[in-house]
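Example 3.2
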Amino acid sequence: MAQQYEPLQFAVDKILPHGLFILAGSGKIGKSWLSLDLCVNVATGGSQWDFHATQGDALYLALEDNYSRLQDRLNKMIADSINLSNLNLTTASFGINSGLLEQAHNFLAAHPNTKTHRY
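Structure, written as tokens:
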């Protein structure tokens, strides 16, 4: 009981605390659109459903997409009119047992303004 804990921090107020999460649901209901929108809002300091996002670097692992499709989605989100320099996109990564954690650590080291909680 003597352990002191830092208050929970949010990348998007009240709906996206810092940390690692899995977004699951039925196919074709908009999980990748929501994920990309959340990343864009964090990267730009925008808001998601009227909840403020703390601006910082964001990494979107679009492992089922290609860059052309991501560009098309960003254009549909009117992302060409905003600064996306804090948004990092990739369509490939190492597997969990073959380097993903090292890849994530390297990204965090190279992008210290990433909105995540480090343990």
